[in-house]
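Protocol step 6 of 9: fold each sequence in the batch and record its structure tokens directly after the sequence line. For illustration, a two-sequence batch is reproduced in full.

Sequence one:
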Amino acid sequence: MLLHRSFWVFSVVVILCLSCKKQINNAGSGVLGSQNILNGVTVDTFDLTTYTVQEDSIITDNAANIVLGSYTDPKLGSFDASFYTQLLLGGSTPNFGDASTIILDSFVLALEYTGYYGALTAQNFEVYEMDESIYLDSAYYIYSSKLVKPTNYVVPSMSNITPDPNNNVIVGTDTLSPQLRIHLDTNLARTFITEAVSGSSTFSSNEDFKSYFKGLYVKTNNGVLPSGDGAALYINLNDASSKVTMYFQQDGESKTYDLVMSSDGADFVHIDIDYAGYPVDQVLQDSTLGKVEFYAQAFTHRAAIKIPGLDSLPPSSIIHSANLELPVQFQSGTSYAPGTLTSVATRIKSSDDFYTPLSSIGQYIDYKKQVEVDLRYYVQSLLTGEIDNTEVVVSPLYFINSADRIVFNGQNTTNKNKPRLILTYTTY
């Protein structure tokens, strides 16, 4: 799928988004030591077949972090991420006393940043009340959606916001960590207060509250952005700073009440990607164009590499090293810089409908401008018959937590560096 990158909170558990069922067994790999290769053979003449595969059934619920916002990529088209989330009670049953004495100052949705991808231009935010429930034990996909009520609760004069994930926020006398703050209509807060003082059980438990108020749908409405504009914002909904806060005055005293988002509530991300007419669309329509360049993108596209000829290696070969080098197209600036790490997977058998993660993780080497993947155990497993020679797929490591994308050079690229597999082996 950066002008700035802050992924330190992301969990490597995201690799599991590959719909894996098992990992390739590395048992017996101890015999593959590289300390004695005097008679080894090194080859790098494999005719790699490169292309892009598309996925459309990626689960996005209850990820460690969520994505919000839109941008237009010159290679992969428009990217738009929104999310649905439940709200939970911020504490014990609120005691608002005499509601008629409450003066509401503001009602603010705060979302804690963990990073971003793209350019920090202004975006127009909208927030709606969900009209359908979501559940922790249900699966939601990039294309999943829920009915919402028609009212946009964002204060119109405050809907256009330029995100600033790099600087703290000053609220009154408090200095807060970087966060997106969206001002909502105080009439919604007034509705909550009225319900709380009515004597109903709405605020007695989270289950009662979720039944009364099903949650929020948060999105952007930016229209068609020029190429290179916009950004995907990375948000930690489980951080204590991510919440909706009522700020009010009562009897001359400033007070607050929070509704929170946490791992105890359900949430999921909805993704819209329009790549029609963009280079990635051409490669998807004609895989041979992947010989020029091919792509990986969070949520939807994986870069695929087939390596014909591995089957012709002697079955008795001991693989000492197998380094896959995937040059990345140079990008001016850092708006579209690839992530540091990539996931790597394959289909164990040609008939498999799912990818199984390999034990290797690809690494982007900035000074070389390429992703490098250790395929030693993959090739050895192929020779021993444990796996079929299908394809290796490379994806942004944070596949459901980011908007990372990578543009790889194919073997027919006009650029200097081309993909290759450098393999060293001996036979016995």
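Sequence two, same batch, same settings:
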Amino acid sequence: MESGMKVLIVGSGGREHAIAMSVAKSPRVDKIYCAPGNAGIGQIAECVAIGAMEFDRLAAFAKEKQIDLTIIGMDDPLVGGVVDVFEAEGLRVFGPRKNAAILEGSKAFSKDLMKKYHIPTAAYENFDDADQALAYLETAKFPIVLKADGLALGKGVLICNTLEEARDGVRSIMLDKQFGTAGNRMVIEEFMTGREVSVLSYVDGKTIRTMTSAQDHKRAQDGDQGLNTGGMGTFSPSPFYTAEVDEYCKKHIYQATVDAMAAEGREFKGIIFFGLMLTSAGPRVLEYNARFGDPEAQVVLPRMKNDVIDVMEACIDGRLDTIDLQFEDNAAVCVVLASDGYPVRYDKGLEIRGLERFDGMDGYYCFHAGTKLDEDGRFVTNGGRVLGVTAKGADLREARANAYAATEWVDFDNKYMRHDIGKAIDEA
């Protein structure tokens, strides 16, 4: 086992802060860099002013600093092929290659994969012609879901209740290009109802180890109202992810996905995030992501007992079967503190007060998402999602009470949060 390792993390959000915090706990690591990072990450790592999409600069930096392991947090660089650039330079890197990151990069690819390998998902059709899509709608059942094919930061999904809405939706995605080039192709699929559950997993190309379950809250406002966001809060584990559900997914979804990718000549090493819908007919895959979720990482990683470096290296080396992945027998809840007006318009540069309250508090975490240091060295807001306040507890109710209590410790002028994160806990 190598000790005295140098690690580089690529990304700048709350997810990367959670990864950095896990890496910092590893006795094998003595130096962490993060590109580009944020003010919170800067407390435990040296932030480097290189953007996540500057692949050649990142690889050159990793060579220059003799980085032992690079961890890619974000979806865009993975889909763009950052791992391939690193591997070509002989650098160790954690994350899927470009030909495997397509699992997230193209909705049409992932739907076709599921159809081909009989992985349970919603019925669908792909279209790259707006007229054909409009003709298909004439015979469709409503409600129906329209998805832009490419990366649209989790926002390129429209649920349409009537034929009229759906026609407008096709026009806005494919003709008006509301989501840019992500809308060159489109998936139209059946509307499923049920509870959503997220399951993150480590994959080494052949073996899969699933982590504890989580549930995200996508909408901006209480009662799941308002616009879709990158996520306003999460809890882990999900009470609805029962032993029966787990057994079904192990049998029909998890390993099946890893095997399908290998069979396609697209060996997947890294994180597969399974977005599941628990329907009355059994679990179905809603979507795949090729990295840690945000804010799912913020509730899952603090509960993981293993050294994250050991696990990631096992994935790279194809020996994940030797890892006994373990999680604490507790719960965690994360509440996102956002800037009022997010995800549309909001002010930045507002001073954040009270961060020191978290110092030395066991079981409480304040993950930075959109923060920076101003010229006077003060923490200020620098994005829509500013902080993710996470707390553990013996069970979900206790974790939720702890998380909401801790949201009071920090303040900034346009602080906004949802007050019903984890409301599903009461329905379990």
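Proceed to step 7 once all outputs are recorded. Observation for sequence two: The chain has four domains: 5-98, 123-190, 195-322, 331-427.
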